């Protein structure tokens, strides 16, 4: 089954997720969708100093938005902020330093942001990476891929929702990955035991499946907020270069630019028509896409889903 899923995902990737996939899809895009002024709107983007997150921040800033960049390195965050302010002439770009793999500090940051800011309209859970070696975080003893890609965004979103729900039409956009199509949800959301056959790509794909399931869960629970998740395609970024190894070496000429990868995130943040698409949907290139490959048996049972949600909450 894994071989079948990988073969199908690779073929789908070549056609739809590559640079050519973007160029073909973009022929159908309506640029009026994103020709909006968002002065006064408040956005938060995690992993905003690089790749897709940086492009998203720049696009939101260029339309007048106030953007809060959540990054782990002050130096990289300030360099990206300077570049964005220079390009957009928008000074309302703010840096917050949080290592998302440290869950306690994510919770503390969300609490202090909620106490000191009266408004947050849109949250983009973008930060993520594939850490090659199995290790536990020092603070909470969580497997590091799980802490960075899943638990951090769970805690950040849950903690910020009360503030966001005060806004008129709040949105949460989760950057997942088509890699999740390889994985069925594992209800035991994490383990402290090192598996015999640890594969970073599987750990990463499981996290992205978790974020997709969380998107659906939040959509059911919070009807006043619009939730979406998306796959950016194969995008030439530091995370892709570090995480994909040989695949990146052989295929990078087919990878999209960060701006192309960011396009659907920007559209999900800005387009009016997004709000009439059911909350909880998964997107690729501005279109609702399937959350499971045909015949791939990756759909979780209700029981597994509720066990997973219990595991996240505990
Ligand atoms: N590139 C692709 O082909 C592809 C495909 C599918 C999905 N995605 C997803 O797209 C999202 C953005 O990635 P990207 O491709 O744009 O890569 P990128 O340019 O390397 O950006 C990743 C961002 O996440 C930040 N980050 C990673 N771990 C963090 C932590 N512990 N605390 C705080 N920030 C952290 C990075 O910070 P530093 O700069 O400090 O490292 C960086 O700002 C990720 O969720 C990724 O999984 C990418």
From TrEMBL:
It comes from Ciona intestinalis. It comes from the Eukaryota. InterPro entries: NAD(P)-bd_dom_sf, SDR_fam, SDR_member_12. This is Dehydrogenase/reductase SDR family member 12.
